[in-house]
Amino acid sequence: MKKFTLCLKISFISAVAALLFAFSDPESIEQYVGYLQKSFTEHYDISQEAKQIKRYELNITNNGFCRYKRYFNNGKTEYFAFKLAKFKDMEYEGTTAVGRLYLRTKGDDVIVQTYNDRGGDVDSMATQVIIPLKNIEAEDLNFIRENLTKICGL
Fold this sequence. Notes:
Keywords: Signal. The structure is a single chain. The protein is of the alpha+beta class. The chain has one domain (about 30-154). It has helices at about 1-20, 30-45, 140-154; strands at about 55-60, 65-70, 75-85, 85-95, 100-105, 110-115, 120-125, 130-135. A 5-stranded antiparallel sheet has the order 1-2-3-6-7. A 3-stranded antiparallel sheet has the order 4-5-8, with helices on one face. A hairpin with a 3-residue loop joins strand 4 and strand 5. The N and C termini lie far apart (about 45 Å). The relative contact order is 0.16. The model has no long low-confidence stretch (mean pLDDT about 85).
């Protein structure tokens, strides 16, 4: 009878633990995306391209895409997009005051579209997206890398 009671207690404790883990709040893609969007918005440096770029759009979506669009003063538009699951690595060149973030993918996974260019509209593929940043610390870059890696692993 004692063995039966012990087995019953173990089974009950396991069931309760499984129930608690089922309803725990693991970090979700929305949290990672929110952090990335906030970081890129805060640290984007339009002044690096102010002479050429009229405006830009940089979005990290909840369905796991990075979309970067630049509108040039001459009417040309460049659009870059890649699925965050294809993220391979990143590199930052510059100082904490100003620099460029290179987001690299596993292969030719970055969609590049050019509109209203003198050479015509061009669709191609690339292996990286370059984002100008300012006022960013090494810790912020580490958090960006962590969040991209976590999204890639989901």
